[in-house]
Amino acid sequence: MTRHGRRTLYLIGAGLLVAALVGGRWLAVETAERAWDRSFAGGDAIIAARDLARLLQGLVFLISVAWFSGNLFIVYRAIGSVQMPRRLGDLEIVEAVPRRTLLAGAALLGVVLGALFSLGAGDWWRHAVMAAAPPHFGVSDATALGRDAGYYVSLVPWYAALQNRTLILVVAAT
Description:
- With 174 residues, this protein is mostly helical.
- Helices cover 71% and strands 7% of the residues.
- The longest helix has 36 residues, at 43-78.
């Protein structure tokens, strides 16, 4: 086996090991949370809500990866060639980057950007439900606003989630 082949096998093995460790930890945490949720009344509703959040997060992940990968593929198609200068002693050699490498880089960057963009996508729904029907505690704050405590419990987290999503969208658009 060649040196390059062994290195490829080591990299594949390391990637599989990382995937197994991360996946195993996620599976253990998910199993423990589901067992705890089933231990009290109303736990099935929490499990259903968590499943809905995961479904939303998966959909946002797929859409964002498709969006970023599609846009980067359009950029890849628009690029004629990329030439990188290299120095070998006193000589400067201009070398063309293979198109296959550019395509792999565009695909990998699309997946990474899509994954980063979709982080926390399934968490906003709780804030939306609380903001839709804010509780009224009958306790107002001592500031000049005089707002009920329910405003700070329900609407402020929703506004913070909206601000966070808007910031992410604006940063991604620029």
